[in-house]
Design goal:
Blueprint lengths: L2 E6 L2 E6 L10 H16 L4 E6 L20 H17 L5 E5 L2 E2 L2 H8 L2 E5 L3 E3 L13 H20 L2 E3 H6 L5 E3 L4 H13 L3 H17 L3 H15 L3 H11 L11
Parallel strand pairs: 2-3, 3-4, 4-6, 5-7, 6-9
Antiparallel strand pairs: 1-2, 7-8
């Protein structure tokens, strides 16, 4: 697997480039992907875009040379996959991913870990593991149960049915659906716009959303956290610039600095 990283104008673009294998990931590829996110963070980028070359985003783990008799599946997932997903989830800037073609297993997990996912109408999302005698992993159970409920989740898992990108967005799994031919340009434009925005304000919202997701806080604790976040942002240069630009009827110029 080749993982390609380019950084320009505050945006890190990470490409999974092994189209002949549908961008399936082995352990080295996961390490390379982790390194790409580390380099992007160290470069201080203000947004990340992850996508795959060819007809699939990522078909999951590369099992072409895996011997099930000796495979430590739990160790692989816990030691290799989960740290990458948590790294992406905690990335210190907005993260975007493009879902095209097969988005399965670890590929689905990469989408779940990203902040915003734009889905091609041709994407295929679901749980093919019934055909392997295995179960859905990489956070798929949590996503499907939260958005689809128990019955639809188990229906997808038991039958190995894959849903289209259009249906995935209609069901509330991801952000929006875009025609396959347009999705890369569409996403690049939006990522560039976000990279020029008030990064610290975006990160405050990211933390608030993660608190709601992970701690299941209620309305009033979340509102209190919002108040505190707004107060902290009040001392930032971007906050002052945003208010000044509004009052002066001009476009703000944000630095994204803390």
């Amino acid at each position: 697997m080749t993982v390609e990283l380019t950084i320009a104008e505050g945006v890190a673009e990470i490409l999974l480039n092994e189209p002949g294998k549908l961008n399936a990931l082995d352990e080295q590829a996961i390490a390379d992907l982790s390194d790409a996110y580390t380099q992007a963070a160290e470069a201080g980028v203000r947004a990340v875009l992850l996508h795959g070359e060819g007809r699939a985003f990522c078909a999951g783990r590369d099992i072409s040379n895996v011997d099930p008799a000796t495979d430590d599946a739990e160790g692989y997932l816990s030691r290799v996959v989960t740290p990458l997903l948590t790294q992406i989830d905690a990335f210190p800037a907005p993260t975007f991913a493009i879902a095209t073609g097969a988005c399965l297993g670890i590929g689905l997990g990469l989408l779940i870990a990203s902040d915003v996912v734009y889905v091609a109408d041709t994407a295929k999302i679901g749980s093919p593991f019934a055909n392997l005698g295995a179960t859905l992993d990489s956070g798929g159970h949590a996503l499907f149960f939260e958005r689809l409920g128990a019955h639809r989740t188990l229906d997808l898992i038991y039958t190995a049915e894959l849903i289209s990108g259009t249906e995935a967005v209609q069901l509330g799994l991801f952000s929006r659906v875009v025609p396959q031919a347009e999705i890369l340009a569409f996403t690049r434009a939006r990522v560039s716009r976000v990279a020029a925005g008030a990064t610290q304000a975006f990160l405050a919202s990211k933390r608030l959303v993660h608190q709601l997701r992970d701690e299941r806080v209620g309305l009033w604790p979340s509102l209190a956290a919002e108040n505190a976040a707004q107060g902290a942002l009040g001392g930032s240069a971007d906050y002052a610039e945003g208010f000044a630009a509004f009052q002066e009827k001009r476009k703000p110029v944000f630095t994204g600095l803390a």
